[in-house]
Specification:
Largest sheet: none
Oligomer: single chain
Radius of gyration: 10 Å
Number of domains: 1
Structural class: mainly alpha
Distance between the termini: 20 Å
Order of helices and strands: HHHH
Number of helices: 4
Length: 60
């Protein structure tokens, strides 16, 4: 599973985050830090916070 797929899966589990992201109510760096362990486990690789922030930004 790649980073984008892992991110989408993590966000599907938390539908309230989707709306909060659309309304720009969430600090992306904080969200990345929270999701980082789950994403790393899903991808089987170390995931940098900055890469996760960029993936969150690009999903729009």
């Amino acid at each position: 599973m790649n980073l984008r797929e892992a991110l989408e899966e993590a966000l599907r589990k938390r539908p309230f985050l989707e709306e909060a992201l659309q309304e720009e109510l969430i600090n992306l760096s904080s969200l990345a830090r929270i999701l980082q362990p789950e994403i790393a486990a899903s991808t089987g690789k170390e995931v940098k916070e900055s890469a996760l922030v960029m993936a969150i930004r690009r999903r729009e």
